[in-house]
């Protein structure tokens, strides 16, 4: 009919308006709705899956971890009170808005529970943690008309390596317990095996003892019989061995005679071989050695004579060279002596003139030596009081003054007045 509205089992219809003091709630059925005077709204009863993330939450001991939970929630349609509360909270809102509100509520309770527990409690007893979050969150969500169908922990992780360290400690503990259990099992197994081996060996030894006793009796009786048999056998073998020994002795005597003859023949052969080798040695070694010795002696004698002759020639050459050098030195000395004698005679005859001549030849050299330091100077600074000459003429005049004072120095040393002698020489 036109005025009837229907809905499926996964949704609820809410009719409000005339004739209803409170909204009429219908889940998965039909209802008559008056147009204009009544209003029809629907709300979804589908299950919503929430991924509850709580990153880096500090636990009771201050260790930050991250927990991811999976929750299944839905609006409870069988309970009229809860459905009425859900209508008050979510009617007119989208499914995503409902999901967001439920997710925020669950995440807040999840973080709060994490802060009251240690990492070990959360990690090792996930069921207890899930139950705590389920119970605390359900009280708030029920007031909103939402029930938690299921809640479980999907993942627990941390960035500090705390869980890894716990896992390593637990792994080491399990391995230790396994090794202890294995050692205890080996110990019990070894004990039982030892007891069984002891019983087996005891039975074996008892059995071996009885066997040994029976064997001993058998051996004693057998030994008695064997004595008689062996005695007769020994007498027979002794007679046989005696005769065999006599025969072997004769054979050995004949063998010795044969070996003596063979040894004599070998000695003769060796003597002949020695003689042959001596001749061979004489021809191949001794004679070439003597020839080589003679050759070496002759070469050594010739070398010695050569060295002696070279030494004598060298000594003679040194002697001749020395005599020549001595003659040259003597001749040079005689020439110098004659020159000195002639120079002395000249000095005696021309004493003053010679001195004057020497001084005149020396004056330019003295002037050059006096001026030499000045020629090496890069810069000359002259200071004058304004009364005398200034400039290069001053330097020249000082050098000439030094040269002009030389005759006085010669006169004081030799007693010869050079100026006077030069004036007499000019007059002549």
Overview of the structural elements:
The protein has 428 residues and is α+β, with helices and mostly antiparallel strands. 70% of the residues lie in helices and 14% in strands. It has helices at 80-90, 95-115, 119-124, 126-143, 162-349, 351-375, 392-404, 406-414, 418-427; strands at 4-6, 11-17, 24-27, 30-32, 38-44, 48-58, 64-75, 146-157. The strands form 3 sheets. A 3-stranded antiparallel sheet has the order 3-2-5, with helices on one face. Strand 6 (48-58) and strand 7 form a beta hairpin. The radius of gyration is 74 Å and the shape is flat. The model has no long low-confidence stretch (mean pLDDT 78).
Helix content bin: over 70%
Q: Give the ordered list of helices and strands.
A: EEEEEEEHHHHEHHHHH
Largest sheet composition: 3 strands, antiparallel
Residues in β-strands, percent: 5-15%
Overall geometric form: flat
Helix count equals 9
The first-to-last residue Cα distance is 185 Å
Strand order of the largest sheet: 3-2-5
Low-confidence stretches: none
The overall pLDDT average reads 78
Number of strands: 8
The radius of gyration is 74 Å
Structural class of the secondary elements? alpha+beta
């Amino acid at each position: 009919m036109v005025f009837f509205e229907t809905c499926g089992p996964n949704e609820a219809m809410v009719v409000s308006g005339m004739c209803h003091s409170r909204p009429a709630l219908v889940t998965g059925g039909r209802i008559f709705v008056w147009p204009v005077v009544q209003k029809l709204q629907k709300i979804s009863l589908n299950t919503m899956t929430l991924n509850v993330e709580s990153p880096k939450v500090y636990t009771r001991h201050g260790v930050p971890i991250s927990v991811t939970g999976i929750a299944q929630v839905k609006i409870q349609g069988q309970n009229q009170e809860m459905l009425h509360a859900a209508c008050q909270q979510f009617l007119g809102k989208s499914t995503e808005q409902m999901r967001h509100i439920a997710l925020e509520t669950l995440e807040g309770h999840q973080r709060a529970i994490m802060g009251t527990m240690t990492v070990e409690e959360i990690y090792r007893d996930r069921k207890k943690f899930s139950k705590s979050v389920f119970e605390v969150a359900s009280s708030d969500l029920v007031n909103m008309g939402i029930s938690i169908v299921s809640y479980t922990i999907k993942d627990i992780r941390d960035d500090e390596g705390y869980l890894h360290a716990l896992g390593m400690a637990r792994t080491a503990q399990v391995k230790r317990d396994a090794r202890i259990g294995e050692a205890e099992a080996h110990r019990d197994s070894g004990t039982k095996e030892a007891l069984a081996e002891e019983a087996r060996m005891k039975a074996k030894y008892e059995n071996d003892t009885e066997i040994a006793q029976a064997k001993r009796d058998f051996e004693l009786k057998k030994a008695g019989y064997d004595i008689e048999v062996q005695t007769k056998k020994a007498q027979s073998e002794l007679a046989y061995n005696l005769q065999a020994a006599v025969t072997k002795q004769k054979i050995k005597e004949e063998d010795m005679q044969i070996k003596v003859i063979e040894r004599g023949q070998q000695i003769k052969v060796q003597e002949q071989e020695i003689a042959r080798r001596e001749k061979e040695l004489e021809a191949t070694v001794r004679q070439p050695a003597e020839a080589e010795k003679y050759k070496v002696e002759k070469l050594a004698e010739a070398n010695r004579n050569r060295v002696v002759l070279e030494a004598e020639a060298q000594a003679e050459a040194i002697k001749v060279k020395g005599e020549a050098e001595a003659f040259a030195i003597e001749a040079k000395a005689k020439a110098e002596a004659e020159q000195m004698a002639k120079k002395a005679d000249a000095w005696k005859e021309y004493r003053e003139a010679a001195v004057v001549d020497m001084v005149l030849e020396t004056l330019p050299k003295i002037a050059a030596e006096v001026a030499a330091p000045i020629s090496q100077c890069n810069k000359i600074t002259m200071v004058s009081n304004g009364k005398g000459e200034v400039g290069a003429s001053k330097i020249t005049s000082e050098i000439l003054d030094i040269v002009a004072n030389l005759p006085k120095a010669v006169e004081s040393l030799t007693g010869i007045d050079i100026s006077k002698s030069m004036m007499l020489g000019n007059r002549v």
